[in-house]
Amino acid sequence: MQRRIKAAVVQTRSTEDVEANLARAAELVRAARQDGAEFIALPENVAFLRVTSTGHHGEPLDGRVATFFADLARELACHILVGSLQESIDGDARVYNTSLLVGPQGETVATYRKIHLFDIDIPGEVSFLESARVAPGHDPVVADGCGARFGLTVCYDLRFPELYRALLDRGAEVLLVPAAFTLQTGKDHWELLLRARAVENQCWLLAPGQWGHHGGPRHSWGHSMIIDPWGHVVARCSDGEGFASAWLDPAKLADVRRNLPCAQHRRM
Question: What would the pLDDT profile of 125-147 be if each residue is shown by its tens digit?
Answer without folding.
Answer: 667 788 889 999 999 999 999 99
